[in-house]
Design a protein that fits this description.
Blueprint: E1 3-7, E2 10-13, E3 18-25, E4 33-39, E5 46-51, E6 55-57, E7 65-70, E8 75-80, E9 89-96, E10 109-110, E11 114-119
Parallel strand pairs: 2-11
Antiparallel strand pairs: 1-3, 3-8, 4-5, 4-9, 5-6, 7-8, 9-10, 9-11
Length: 120
């Protein structure tokens, strides 16, 4: 059974940094895309960043967030710098099995999310 578990969320002041981690288990994910999404209060879930052998970022986080993965550990991290209050959201880890189209059009596995709150 595939399981994704996020960690690293918390409260930080604007301008600060946080690092989110997602540990995946249940199978090997080295050929799958791993990604981060987020959902702010009252808003729809939105794409943040994804990685397979290349990366892609939402315009709103480009230059501030960095996604990385460790295939040996089946994990993906999101380093978030220069955080803004508008980055406040629940952040979700996701995995896509099909990567022939980039970015993947759909994600097959999701974590439960970790809350990031950025105070002004």
């Amino acid at each position: 059974q595939v399981q994704l578990v996020e960690s690293g969320g918390g409260l930080v002041q604007a301008g600060g940094s946080l690092r989110l981690s997602c540990a995946a288990s249940g199978r090997t994910f080295s050929t799958y895309a791993m990604a981060w999404f987020r959902q702010a209060p009252g808003k729809e879930r939105e794409f943040v960043a994804a990685i397979v052998w290349r990366t892609i970022y939402a315009d709103s986080v480009k230059g501030r967030f960095t996604i990385s993965r460790d295939n040996a550990k089946n994990s993906v991290d999101l380093q978030m710098d220069s955080l803004k209050p508008e980055d406040t959201a629940v952040y979700y880890c996701a995995v896509a099995k099909a990567v022939s189209t980039w970015p993947p059009p759909r994600y097959d596995y999701w974590g439960q999310g970790t809350l990031v709150t950025v105070s002004s």
